[in-house]
Amino acid sequence: MKLPRLLLPLFGLLAATTVTAAPAYDFYICANINRNYVIGSKIVTTNGIFQRTDEGGWRHFGYNDTSITAVAFDPRDRNVIYTTALNGLWRSLDGGATWRICNSWDMTEGREVAVDPNAPDHVYVAFTDGIAVSTDRAQTLVRRENGLPERGKFTQTIKVDRTRAGRVLAGCEVGIFLTEDGAANWRRVHVTTDTVNDLQQSPHDPKIWVAATQSAGALISRDGGITWDRFAGVPTERALYNVTFDVTNPDRLAIGSWAHGVLATEDGGKTWTSRNAGLPENPRVWRVGVDPAGRLYASVFQETLFHSDDFGRTWHPNDLAGSLVNYFFTLPKAAN
Amino acid sequence: MKKLITPFLLLAALVSAQPSFTGPMPAPPADLRPDTLRRAYQARVDETLDWYLHAIDPAGPLTREQALVKLVRGQDAAAVSRRILELLAEPQSGDMFWMFPWTAIAFTGRDQLSPEARAAIRDAWRTYFPMRGDTENHWVMYYASLFLMTELYPDDPGETWFNGKSSEENHAEAKGFLLHWMDLATTIGQGEFNPTHYIGEYAIPMLYLAAWAEDPAMRQRGRMMLDLLMAELADNSLHGVLRGPNARTDDTSVLERWNALATYFSWTMYGHTPPPSGYGGWGIYFAIAAHHYEPPPLFHLIATDREFDREQHDHKRSRRRWRYSDVEMMPVYKTGYIRRDYAVGSYQGGVTDPIQAHVWDVTWHEDDPRGVHNTMFSVHPHASARVLQMYFTEYPDWMIDLLASQGKPSYGVPDKILGCSPYEQVFQDLDTVIALYAIAPGENFQRVNGFFSRNLRDVTEDASGWIFARGGNTYLAYRPLAPYTWDELLGYRQLPRGNSGYVWERFRPEGPVDRILVSPHANNGTIVQAASADEFESFESFQAAMRALPLEFTLEPRPAVKFTTLRGKKVAFTYGEAPVVNGQAVDYARWKLFEGPHLNAELGSRKITISHGRQHRVLDFNTVTISDYVTP
Q1: Does residue B48 have a pLDDT over 60?
Q2: Cα–Cα distance for residue pair A191/B559, rounded to 1 Å
Q3: For chain B, give me the number of helices (H) and strands (E)?
Q4: Which of A284, B52, B54, B408 could join B69 in a cystine, given CB atoms 3.0 to 4.6 angstroms apart?
């Protein structure tokens, strides 16, 4: 059933949301439940987008693909769904019933997709060799890389600033890049020697951005992504995979890392502590996420998905044994 | 068989007889008339098909491959149709490895299968979502299949295909990639060059294009690429055994050089070596359409004529690098030298493919190569998450463990003998190889591993520093440039799967085992010189000749060698510098796409001339033509 509607920009709404017994949001993950799978394997597994049900379980929908890295929705119409995967960028116009690969052979291995909430026809895609943009809901996709280096434009993450159309930050191999004109021009705002793995805009203050990197630790920007400082309490010697805000508490952030497990702060990043008690030994955390009720999730590599209602002090197995969560995504709940 | 047969081979022989696999070594064909060659080629193809038919359990269901062979033979179309409906009613898997088998069934069965079976096959291309993969061979399989299926169903709308694109859109996209790939291969060289197994992933799609493409240009291009693959196989094989270097191989084939899917193609095409067990697994998918192709007599001559020594230089390229590299694809300068008794091959070193590359070796001829580890080489056992990240999109921490769990157990072990290294530089002149190593501080494994086969004879550690050995009718001299010790090379045995993929244990194989020369020094080097036993009165005289060769070397501050080879060449090679031969620096910038007695092409030309004596075939991808001519 197609339910076109105007949805407010996600985090703006979430910041104003009060936690209720019946949460007014939908919670999605991109996950693989695929122990033992290799490319070309004859093992049949279930992978892709899962939506949390009201009963707390997970409902798979869309195509079955072990390589989905991210999902995004058109804020006007939740039936318009985008995913990035090994084949590139996929789009569904009917809530996941049918799909189309939007790129040709010359783009591959999509890493992340983002829809501009202020220009929802505009879709930004991070690829292994650069950035592509669509201005027509991914019907056509063109590279827009002016200002990116010839080498070093491996792009792991891309996020749209919700305050202004066409303002986008990209995490690349050699740093963080910013465009303010819809990717017509990019400029590097922060230099790194290794890949920037994740970027997030604060749901509480849109000028605050954080980044997780492979070898530069975790970074924070307080001026909309123009200048960046390192969080002093976060180690730099091993890769950080992603970072997440807690939409219910502006002082809370969590970082997911293979080497460090879950790192959390509850004072806005002044101090960070390890929050691995209750997770498997050497937790090998692949991804952390916080739902709009403030529940913290940790995907432990091919173990299961854990959740914590006290921001990592205690953990409980959630579901999805043998899973690997690549992405967490929250969307205002559709009206009936 | 004259040589030892591994227990596995014996077991395979008992389970189901494969005439050529278990039989005596075949003699190279003496009668090279086209009709004779054609009959022999078809007989080998028929043997493969028959083996699958004979393996059918009358009480059990047909496998997908058996169903396909029945279609090829025009048997039991109704039963095959019913079986196809059963197969497609199950959940599908295999991604691009799913695509080409079902393409083969669709085309082979298009005039035989029931309408229901054909409809089920067609609908599977709507409901099953195959991944395109992340390597060149994946893409060739994916797009060749898509090209053909969208020709079979040319007017279908997007909603009838898994990717939402219409037949016309898919066809154009597939054509675009295939032309791009062929263009790369014929201008700057193939990426996954001389693969011991992945040759099937290229040859089968090209055969299918040659067999079934409606577009005459693509049909011709498929045939031309297949010609190129098979001519290269002929040129790079020693009596049917593909030797190094290889863009990709595996832990078995790098030692037992015969035991590879490439050998299936050598056998099918030229009949001068036995096929591997089960016809290499994927071999059946070539056999089912092999009647659409036959190698010209010219290729037989290249494959079988070892009466004169020959040196070949080729230009290839690395796998595509996504990050942490100044270049997208590294140029590969490949050297091959083949004589009757042995072959020597190499490229210049560096990382061409992060996992399964094999940089150099001497491979000697065995009268029966089955079960024989007929090779010698050395490697730096490099393992690096950062280098893996150059080629893959993954995070760094788990990649090394992941490779073992995905069936590549040796990547992160110190005694591995498979793989390339950024700290290895190699130069080859005819049958001399100099490999230099300058392993960076902090690298996991500060050592060089030299491979010494269990099948070597008379291994002698000489006071001069040379290690002498015999393999087949070949004399070998191996000179480690730094102190060393010996280890046995343990095998890899798969254990029951755990929660994270394959699990392995190391074990000592029964009987004689291979050894590794372990040289635990960061600045290091290996010199290997091969010669035919026929060149010397005795093994001792070979040793004396080697001892007499001028050799100077140093390891600090960088490894450097000055060596006069057995062929009288004065070679100077310093790590980080161009090799110098008889005072002349080697200029890789002048390397052609192919240069040698059998394959020749200019870089960027898209035009390859394949020759033997006065016979020539020209593959001109500019005009999409094949021309044969004989020079006076």
Answers
A1: yes
A2: 36
A3: 17, 28
A4: B52
Domain ranges across chain A: 10-332
**What single letter denotes the amino acid at residue B183?**
D
Determine the distance in angstroms separating the CA of A16 from the nearest CA of chain B, rounded to an integer.
35
- Tokens describing residue B12: 């395979």
What predicted TM-score, i.e. pTM, was given to this entire model? 0.94
- Please give the average pLDDT of every successive group of 10 residues along chain A, which has 336 residues: 35 37 78 69 79 90 93 96 97 97 97 98 98 98 97 97 98 98 98 97 97 98 98 96 96 97 97 96 94 94 92 93 92 67
CB A126, CB A157: distance < 8 Å: yes
Contact B388, B402 (CB under 8 A): no
CA dihedral B57, B58, B60, B61 (to 10 degrees): 100
Q: Domain A10-332 classified CATH 2.40.160.210?
A: no
**ipTM score for this prediction:** 0.92
| Cβ within 8 Å of A, B 266-295 | none
Indicate the Cα dihedral angle B385, B388, B394, B397, nearest 10°: -10
Name every chain A residue with its beta carbon within 8 A of the beta carbon of B132: 86-87, 108
Any A CB within 8 A of B394 CB: no
Sign of CA dihedral A302, A305, A310, A315: negative
Residue B570 has pLDDT above 60, yes or no: yes
- What is the model's pLDDT at position A14? 39
Residues of B in contact with A86 (CB under 8 A): 131-134
Cβ contact, residue pair B131, A154, below 8 Å? no
B9 — pLDDT class (breaks 50, 70, 90) = very low
Please judge whether B134 and A86 are an interchain contact, meaning their C-beta atoms are less than 8 angstroms apart.
yes
* Residue B308 scores a pLDDT above 80: yes
Chain A residue at shortest CA distance from B165: A100
